[in-house]
Amino acid sequence: MSQGSDGPWELPKGWEWAPFADVARVASNLVSPFDYPDLPHIAPNHIESETGRLLPFSTVAEDGVKSPKHLFTSGHILYSKIRPYLAKVVMVKFDGLCSADMYPIATELDPGYLTLWLRSPAFTGLAAKHQGRSVLPKINKEALAKLPVPVPPLAEQQRIVVALDEQLSRLSAGAQSLGGTMDKADALRRKVLARLTKAPGDSWTQYQLGDLAASVRNGMYVSRPGVEPDGVAILRIGAVRPLRLELTDLRYSAVEEQQVAEDGYLLEGGDLLFTRYNGNPAYVGACAVVPEGAGPLTYPDKLIRVQLRRDIADAEFVAMACTGGSARQVIASAVKTTAGQAGIAGRDLKKVPISLPSLEEQRHRVRVYQSWEAVIARLETEVSKGQRRVGQLRRSLLAEAFAGRLVPQDPAEEPAEELLTRIRAEREAAGATTPRRRSPRRAPAQRKRASDTALTSDAPPPPGADAPAFAAATQPTLDLEIPS
Q: How far is CA 109 from CA 49, 117, 188, 395, 411, in A?
């Protein structure tokens, strides 16, 4: 490919766009894992998407794998071909076997450079256009072979790797610090909840949740809730999160308000809602209060409503106890898993022990918690902004690198055109051949797609006047001390 016109964006002088197949080769060496029981086994879930960091893994024998696997050797790049793992790429420095859902790749470019390109949003955006239409969409080797790679001189590739490694390491350290701060904020929330809902001595009255409830009832069954307004709005199954009810994403029951009320499914302000079923056991039994003034609203059958006796129980306080107090531990122990779904029954919720002070004291403690929660929520908001900024900086760094704007260029270096010519000559001398294409009868039917080389939204933008100086960028760290 010639520079500029044959790629998604214009490249600097001395760079070239090249098809993936001209600079890298995908291995096709499926082997029986029984022949290599002591080798490491790598699967897509062993690779961290954003950073490409290799997570803990085990040997073939420990994993108990049986189906054929790809054999890879030190220096190979492992590339996951199945969505949503198109950004899961790692360069390995040892021999092993990898999941058949991954491609071992060898390259004549700097392996670190190609790894970073495969992980970039620009490349993953191009690859996503070629995913098949099977149950698990994936990109095949034929489509991968045609995708473009921006090729700078070899020495510049190495400078890019060094520069990106340094800056991305800083971003990763910042992201870890921000993640740690978020964990501390949540730990502080749990600690506050536990203290505010714990009885000082034996001064509080002991109940079971069923004693406090005027009604405990599963929600209404709606086969296909609609998106367009039709009848009473119905909460989504995932609307209930600990002490928070999501009211911005509703569906519609196609049942009129009067009928919902007559059937006993119309929610009222102060009702408690618990998650009855979820694929994640941590979310089962999550509790939130229906706010006043929510309007006509109902709930699906995978939620449980508890209507409290308001003469003795404040809904917000009971929700606090069921979220962060000892009652939460009892709820978690009552969760049962069937056919991959975790759930809790209303009869088990009724047995959850709740300790209550006077109504006045309950409401006072709710106000204290709300003051703490406002502070914690502000901190989490700022941390979330920092995490988004880390993601933006990572994408910007990769875009600058593959547009040729991250490191200085040296006109004296061998241009990419000569590098690609040399690679072709070395392949021919070694007797390399182009892989035989599958016949049209065997190839899966695919719709004609847009040209890979068309300008896409993933193309690096031109540098602005206020572009950050990446080489000097550092990430601030936040810390939070939790009082003992």
A: 22, 11, 49, 22, 19
